[in-house]
Every structure is written in C-alpha cells, then in structure tokens.
Design brief:
Elements: E1 4-7, E2 10-13, E3 16-22, H1 38-41, E4 44-51, E5 62-69, E6 73-74, E7 77-78, E8 85-86, E9 93-99, E10 102-107, E11 113-118, E12 123-126, E13 131-136, E14 142-149, E15 154-155, H2 157-162, E16 168-171, E17 174-177
Antiparallel strand pairs: 1-2, 3-4, 4-5, 5-14, 6-7, 8-15, 9-12, 9-14, 10-11, 10-13, 16-17
Bound molecules: 5-phospho-D-arabinohydroxamic acid and zinc ion.
5-phospho-D-arabinohydroxamic acid (PAN) binds next to strand 5, strand 13 and strand 14.
C-alpha cells in the first residue's frame, strides 16, 4: 500500500500537512478588505492539504496539494487564494479542477493577465514566471489539485505590494475580470 491516498477531494495519509487561511489572514488581497468585520475575519477562506515528501528547496522534487476554497464574496469580489509567483521563477505548476467552479487567474511579470475557467476535470498549466491565484465563482466549495516543485518557493511579497492588475468581480451576476 502507498503511504498516502488521494480520494475525491481528500488527501489522506501520515505525512499530510494542513494549512488554513482565514478571511482575516487574506483581507489585504480584497479591494474592500477593510470592511471585513471581526466576526467574518475568523471565517476560514481556504485550507490546503499538502504532501511534501522532499525537503523544501530540493531541486527537481515534487509537492502535491489539494486546496479547498469556500464560496463567498467580499464586496463584489469572489473569495480567492492569496496568489503568488514562485520564488524560483523558472518553476512551473499544474492545477486541476476537482469540485465546484472557479477561475484560475494568471499574470505575467509585465502585468498581462488572463483567466481560465476551472471545473471538475479542467487542467491548467502554469508556466514559470506567472503569478497564479484561484477564485471560487460557485456557491459550493471549490476543490483543486496542485503539483509543484519542491524548489519553487513562494513569493507572496510581490503580490502583497503590487497586487494583480485585475480583480475578478461579480458583475450583473457573472464573473468578470475588471
Ligand atoms: C498551491 C497554493 C494553494 C494556496 O498549492 O499554494 O492553492 O494558494 P496560496 O499559496 O496562493 O495561498 C500552489 O500554487 N503551490 O505552489
Ligand atoms: Zn504555486
């Protein structure tokens, strides 16, 4: 038997690491993040179950994770992940949709931005040098898989400072990058 199992949207095993982001942790990514109340701030926005079989930084090793992103809006912006560039800009990643519907937002270092619809079975190749984040545009939770290099590293700072060049908003009931 393998040490870990990947069943539906759950990653089960001995060495699975869990991390959680509350709305309060990620308030800065939203245009109207300062309107998040104390009560809302403790709500979980997403959690990530990861299998990290190599030491962080190992060249060529792989990591595997499942993100579960809850539905909701902050103002007219959908709940989304923080988003990042890989610190090691040359490293690519795969995302794939498992449950729910969302949008993968990809932005290059020049700020050119595009969205790809995510749904069960969708596969998204994220080339190196592309910042990536996912927004949940459905009213159920969105689960997606990810596979990235153990020497990718996460550069959250660039996004914290500059943000993405467009926001995924609910406009007349439908998602739109504005
Ligand atoms: C993913 C992300 C995960 C959470 O595993 O880390 O979806 O998003 P943030 O890291 O932007 O909060 C990944 O892209 N790893 O490289
Ligand atoms: Zn990544």
């Amino acid at each position: 038997m393998p040490e870990n199992l990947f069943i539906g949207k759950s990653l089960i095993g001995k060495k699975i690491e869990q991390s959680t982001r509350t709305l309060g942790d990620i308030r800065f990514i939203f245009e109207k993040g300062d309107q998040i109340t104390l009560q809302q701030a403790s709500r979980i926005a997403y959690n990530v179950s990861s299998y990290l079989p190599e030491k962080e930084g190992t060249p060529g090793g792989l990591y595997f994770g499942i993100t579960n992103l809850y539905p909701g809006l902050v103002g007219d912006e959908y709940f989304m992940t923080k988003g990042h560039f890989h610190a090691n800009r040359d490293t690519a990643e795969f995302y794939w949709g498992i449950e729910g519907e969302g949008v993968v937002i990809l932005m290059d270092e020049q700020g050119n931005i595009k969205g790809e619809k995510m749904f069960p079975g969708s596969l998204h190749y994220i080339p190196g040098r592309m910042a990536h984040r996912v927004a949940n545009v459905s009213d159920v939770s969105l689960s997606f898989g990810a596979c990235w290099y153990s020497n990718a590293g996460h550069d959250y700072k660039t996004i914290e400072q500059k943000g993405f060049t467009a926001r995924l908003k609910k406009v007349n009931g439908a998602p739109q990058l504005v």
